[in-house]
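ugh ok fine here u go
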Amino acid sequence: MYCVPESSGIAAGETGLVIRPFTADDNARLTAIWYAASRLSHPFLPDDLLLRQRREISEKYLPDTETWVAVRNGDPVGFIGLIDQFIGGLFVSPDVQSLGIGGRLLDHAFALKSKLALEVYAANTRAVAFYRRHGFCGVRRRETDDNGLPHPLILMQKPCPAGQRRFGELQNPTR
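structure:
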């Protein structure tokens, strides 16, 4: 387990955050977090697609990836799923976003892997900015997502490739 000290920037009065491996008992709560966070951050995705993906998250993604769970006051509040050095997803419950939990999950993953990559929807500008603040830079863009929908994705990585500035980015990556 990975404990975050009280002085880490987690909300005032926070007793701490524990990051631990996923267990089957987490499945329902993490699937609910995924769905709530996805609806908030991906309003451009059709509801029927999110409902289909919710089943895949529960049945395949959570059990089959290296998933780390952020637990606050005994309750799971977020998670990061890793496939080798690729972040398959990072989701924090909407009611506790912006408290430093996502950053702590990233720090934990980076400490384990020392190099990370991910894809993020270009339209999710809040997430793009979050990853930039945490040292990721864009290295490639594609115009369709994994479902063939016209939602551009940015491939980001940390550390940045040699010669690319930390906050360097593709030309107009969110256009």
